[in-house]
Specification:
The complex is a heterodimer.
Chain A lengths: L8 E5 L4 E6 L8 E7 L6 E6 L4 E2 L4 E4 L5 E6 L8 E8 L11 E6 L1
Parallel strand pairs in A: 1-9
Antiparallel strand pairs in A: 2-7, 3-4, 3-8, 5-6, 6-7, 8-9
Chain B lengths: L4 E3 L2 E4 L5 E6 L6 E7 L6 E7 L2 E4 L8 E4 L6 E5 L8 E8 L9 E2 L3 E5 L1
Parallel strand pairs in B: 2-11
Antiparallel strand pairs in B: 1-3, 3-8, 4-5, 4-9, 5-6, 7-8, 9-10, 9-11
Classes of the chains: A mainly beta, B mainly beta.
């Protein structure tokens, strides 16, 4: 599975959009981009995933560049409860998720 | 419906002891995964089951670690002769199958402390 690179931390004001970037320049054509988050002392929580097209669900939007070398997770109206570690993962097969260090998102009031 | 459950939530043991950690996946999910998370790091894959069989156990660190899923539902992770370095949160996840489009749903984890 391709390696992903994320900034170690980001801050976001409550109520504003949080845009979390991820680089996956070596991603292959069959690899999906997955986003999970982990709130303190809880198990990881699935957010969204995509292959080529942009995706949106009730939690977030995922924007994937045309060359698929990077993506952005967008939380449209961040709340204090969105403070967590966010993991971007490139995954070809639905088996082992390879977690990096992720991005610590701090939402501040 | 019920999510993935793990018991116990916390386990404290002494070095050299044997421990068992249990995972109850979401009903009907055929794929089950175990991960280990050390403090300040992301989860690391240990083993995954498709049904009753271990499809990939490449993440098990050594032969002190063993996992079973005899009836294709509940799984038990077994650690023999525990060491202080085994202290971590052990996470279990399940998914409907193991296809790339299947989401893995995680349990809350078992925090293992080896004194």
């Amino acid at each position: 599975d391709a390696k992903t690179t994320q900034p170690p931390s980001m801050d976001c004001a409550e109520g504003r959009a949080a845009n979390l970037p991820c680089n996956h320049s070596t991603i292959s054509g069959n690899e999906y981009v997955y986003w999970y988050r982990q709130i303190h002392s809880q198990g990881p929580q699935y957010i969204i995933h995509g292959l080529k097209n942009n995706e949106t669900n009730e939690m977030a939007s995922l924007i994937i560049t045309e060359d698929r070398k990077s993506s952005t997770l967008i939380l449209p109206h961040a709340t204090l409860r969105d403070t967590a570690v966010y993991y971007c993962i490139a995954l070809e097969y639905g088996n082992k998720l390879v977690f990096g260090a992720g991005t610590i998102l701090r939402v501040k009031s | 419906g019920a999510g993935v459950s793990q018991t116990p939530s916390n386990k404290v043991t002494e070095k050299g002891k044997y421990v068992e950690l249990r995972c109850d996946p979401i009903s009907g999910h055929t794929a089950l995964y175990w991960y280990r998370q050390s403090l300040g790091q992301g989860p690391e894959f240990l083993i995954y089951f498709q049904g009753t069989g271990a499809a990939d156990d490449s993440g098990l660190p050594n032969d002190r670690f063993f996992a079973v899923r005899p009836e294709g539902s509940v799984s038990t992770l077994k650690i023999q002769r525990t060491e202080r370095g085994d202290s971590a949160v052990y996470l279990c996840a399940s998914s409907p199958r193991s296809a790339s489009t299947d989401t893995q749903y995680f349990g809350p984890g078992t925090r293992l402390t080896v004194l």
